[in-house]
Amino acid sequence: MGNPPNAPWPHQPGQGPPPYGPPPMPPGGPAPGMPGGFAPQPGPPPPGRKGGGGLVLALVGCGLVFVLIAVGVVVLALQGGDDDGGGGEVQLRVGKIAGGAEAAPQADGSLVMSRPGVTAPVVDIYEDFACPPCGAFDQKHDPMLKQMVVEGRAKVVFHPMLIFGESRQPAHDNSLRAAAALRCVGDGAHWLSYQDALYEHQPENENATGYTTDELLSLAEPLGLTGDDFTSCVKSQRYAASVKTVSQGYISSGISGTPSVRVNGRTLDPSDIESPEALRRAVEAAS
């Protein structure tokens, strides 16, 4: 069974490494996170995830049954364009989402999704792509969260991170490759679409090898992410070290398991994310 969402990992010394516990601390203690920032530049809207309006999916994983009711929320559409060319840092650009919202990648690897001028409540989502409960959380809550953003009722921040320790293979390396590849996407709309693709093709469990370099490039191709710089960025894992540093910063701030959700800085209880309706109520209560 996986780590319950938002609950500290109930791991006791001597029981072996926890599947969703934090990676080992580096010498001298955890490293701080990196500052955020982006270079605004209007970008194209991305396509929506598969299974849009009216689709009901029963998701069984980690002992929990999740029911997704996607009710015609936000339709995201892509429009040409690749990320930057050049071999240095990826240039970050604000992407436009259908309905007037924007998706702004940050320099620390996170992404802010909001309507212009909406600054609260802030919903921070900490996720690991190799964590099966994170994939279930995304499928269950993502349409509702995008709807709240388009309605101007919340500002949502996605925080991809590495929660698996190096001894937890192949999950550690799967997660690291996926998070580092997402950092290679500069446009916010493409970022969201690539995140959807990563979850849709998530390894079936933490013991299965996935997110190989070839697969990461293959998933990006339909989104128009085929440029030489993107390809070399993914192949070299250009942002792997940064992913580790940022992840240690999140762990230092109190993130002990994934998925974790904070609203205005307060970590939600498991009951607050049992359903999209429960999460919506928790967000609205913080408004």
TrEMBL record:
Region entry Disordered, spans: 1-49, 262-287
Composition bias type Basic and acidic residues, residue spans: 277-287
Record GO terms (molecular function): oxidoreductase activity
This protein's UniProt keywords: Disulfide bond, Membrane, Oxidoreductase, Redox-active center, Signal, Transmembrane, Transmembrane helix
Pfam families in the record: Thioredoxin_4 (PF13462)
Domain of life of the native organism: Bacteria
InterPro entries in the record: Thioredoxin-like_fold, Thioredoxin-like_sf
UniProt biased composition (Pro residues): 1-33
Transmembrane segments: 55-78
Residue span, Thioredoxin-like fold domain: 120-283
PANTHER family the UniProt entry points to: DISULFIDE BOND FORMATION PROTEIN D, GLUTATHIONE S-TRANSFERASE KAPPA
Family as reported in the entry's similarity comment: Belongs to the thioredoxin family. DsbA subfamily.
UniProt protein name: Thioredoxin domain-containing protein
